C-alpha cells in the first residue's frame, strides 16, 4: 500500500499534474486510492526526504516549487555521476549483454529520430530507458538509488520546459554518440567527455529556455 501511494503521488508530481498551491490532504488521497491514511503518511514522508514536497505541521503539505538551486543541483549531480555510471556499467556487465542492450537502445533512438512530429511521451520513454540503463546496471546500490531521485526531478523539469523538439533531436544524436563510443570500445576518457558534453549542452539549452517553465 505504501508503494502504491508513493508511486501514485510521485507520478502526479513529476508530471506537474498537481498545482504547487494545492494542499495535499492525506484523507483525500487515501480515499482516492481506497487505502488507509498510514501508507499515505509514509509515502509523503519519503517524498519529503526526496525533496518533492514540504510538510508544514498544522498548516499543510505542498509540492516544492522548482527553483534555480534545484535545477543547478540536478545538473551538477548529472555532470559528476553520469560518466561514472557509464564506466561502472561497462566494467560490471557481461560484454555480450551490454552490446545487445546498447544496440537496442541505438535502434530505438534511430527510429524516433526519423519521426517528424516527435511525441514527447515517446521521446521520454526512449531517453529515460537510455539513462536508467546505466543507472540500474552500474552495480552500485547507493548510486542507483540517488540517481533515480535525480532523474525524477529532471523529468519534472523537462516536462515543464520543452515545447519544441529541436533539443530532443540534438539529444538523440548525442546519446547515439555515447552508445557508439561504448560499442566501439573507445577510450573511457572519450566516452566520459561525450557524456559531459551532452549534459552541458542540455544545461545550456535549459537556461536559455527558462521562460517556458509552466510551474
Map the helices and strands.
Layout: H1 2-14, H2 26-33, H3 37-49, E1 53-56, E2 60-63, H4 68-92, H5 95-113, H6 120-136, H7 141-161, H8 166-183, H9 188-208
Antiparallel strand pairs: 1-2
Helix pairs in contact: 1-3, 2-3, 4-7, 4-9, 5-6, 5-8, 6-7, 8-9
Write up what this structure looks like.
α5 packs antiparallel against α8 and α6 (120-136) runs antiparallel to α7 (141-161). The chain has a two-stranded antiparallel ribbon with strand order 1-2. β1 (53-56) and β2 form a beta hairpin. 72% of the residues lie in helices and 4% in strands. It contains 9 helices and 2 strands. The two termini are 29 Å apart. The radius of gyration is 19 Å and the shape is globular. It is mainly alpha-helical.
Offer a few descriptive terms:
mainly alpha; single chain; globular; 2 strands; two-stranded antiparallel ribbon; 215 residues
Radius of gyration: 19 Å
Summed up, the helix count is 9
Percent of residues in helices: over 70%
Strand arrangement across the biggest beta sheet: 1-2
Question: Could you report the average pLDDT, rounded to the nearest whole number?
Answer: 91
In percent, how much strand structure appears in the residues? under 5%
Shape: globular
* Span of the ends, CA to CA: 29 Å
- DSSP strand tally: 2
Structural category is mainly alpha
Order of helices and strands: HHHEEHHHHHH
The poorly predicted ranges are none
Largest sheet: 2 strands, antiparallel
Amino acid at each position: 500500500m505504501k508503494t502504491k501511494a508513493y508511486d501514485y503521488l510521485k507520478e502526479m508530481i513529476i508530471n506537474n499534474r498537481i498545482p504547487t498551491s494545492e494542499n495535499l490532504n492525506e484523507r483525500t488521497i487515501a480515499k482516492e486510492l481506497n487505502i488507509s491514511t498510514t501508507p499515505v503518511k509514509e509515502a509523503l514522508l519519503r517524498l519529503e526526504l526526496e525533496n518533492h514536497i514540504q510538510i508544514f505541521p498544522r498548516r499543510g503539505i505542498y509540492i516544492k516549487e522548482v527553483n534555480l538551486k534545484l535545477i543547478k543541483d540536478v545538473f551538477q549531480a548529472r555532470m559528476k555521476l553520469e560518466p561514472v555510471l557509464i564506466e561502472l556499467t561497462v566494467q560490471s556487465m557481461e560484454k555480450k549483454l551490454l552490446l545487445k542492450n546498447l544496440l537496442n537502445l541505438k535502434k530505438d533512438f534511430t527510429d524516433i529520430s526519423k519521426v517528424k512530429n516527435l511525441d514527447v511521451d515517446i521521446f521520454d520513454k526512449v531517453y529515460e530507458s537510455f539513462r536508467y540503463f546505466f543507472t540500474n546496471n552500474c552495480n552500485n546500490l547507493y548510486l542507483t538509488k540517488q540517481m533515480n531521485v535525480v532523474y525524477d526531478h529532471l523529468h519534472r523539469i523537462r516536462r515543464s520546459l520543452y515545447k519544441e523538439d529541436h533539443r530532443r533531436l540534438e539529444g538523440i544524436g548525442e546519446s547515439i554518440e555515447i552508445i557508439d563510443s561504448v560499442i566501439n570500445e573507445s577510450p573511457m576518457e572519450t566516452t566520459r567527455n561525450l557524456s559531459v558534453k551532452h549534459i552541458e549542452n542540455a544545461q545550456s539549452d535549459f537556461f536559455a529556455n527558462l521562460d517556458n517553465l509552466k510551474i
